[in-house]
């Protein structure tokens, strides 16, 4: 007699799964199907909350593909998150002199002690323009999931 795992994914579950996150055009962002599966703690922020919400209620063995509308996975793009940072501020934080180029993802220390990141868009004479939106904000995505085990 075998034991059948009938548990469902819920907040606090450790889930072992294969998953693929791709752009609408099919270009993979993350794909574990050809490698070792991932193990995630649901509710710990290891996946974006809307992606975790998709997993809730799934059972061991479930294999599904979800199409997420623009902005459904990582939010809509917010034009207020495109900001200029003075070169003086970058100097004060020891960030001038590093070899930055447009398109680079740059990490900053937050006043609260955490860290956040922005994509460098351009460098001018007195400031640099950064986009602090999540790189996948506003994108339509495909999220494929195969649940292997739930603890």
From TrEMBL:
Keywords: Isomerase, Rotamase
Catalytic activity: [protein]-peptidylproline (omega=180) = [protein]-peptidylproline (omega=0)
Keyword match Ligase: no
GO molecular function per UniProt: peptidyl-prolyl cis-trans isomerase activity
InterPro entries xrefs: PPIase_dom_sf (IPR046357), PPIase_FKBP_dom (IPR001179), SlpA/SlyD-like_ins_sf (IPR048261)
SUPFAM superfamilies assigned: FKBP-like (SSF54534)
Keyword Isomerase: yes
EC annotation from Swiss-Prot or TrEMBL: 5.2.1.8
Lineage top rank: taxon: Bacteria
Family assignment from sequence similarity: Belongs to the FKBP-type PPIase family.
Protein name: Peptidyl-prolyl cis-trans isomerase
């Amino acid at each position: 007699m075998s034991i059948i795992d009938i548990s469902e994914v819920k907040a606090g579950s450790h889930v072992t799964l294969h998953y693929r996150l791709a752009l609408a055009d099919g270009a993979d962002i993350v794909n574990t199907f050809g490698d070792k599966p991932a193990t995630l703690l649901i509710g710990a922020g290891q996946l974006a909350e809307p992606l975790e919400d998709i997993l809730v209620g799934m059972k061991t063995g479930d294999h599904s593909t979800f199409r997420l509308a623009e902005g459904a996975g990582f939010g809509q793009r917010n034009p207020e998150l495109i900001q200029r940072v003075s070169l003086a501020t970058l100097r004060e934080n020891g960030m001038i002199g590093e070899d930055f180029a447009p398109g680079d993802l740059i990490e900053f220390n937050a006043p609260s002690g955490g860290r956040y990141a922005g994509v460098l868009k351009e460098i001018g004479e007195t400031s640099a323009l950064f986009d602090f939106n999540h790189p996948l904000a506003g994108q339509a995505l495909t999220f494929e999931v195969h649940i292997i085990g739930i603890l």
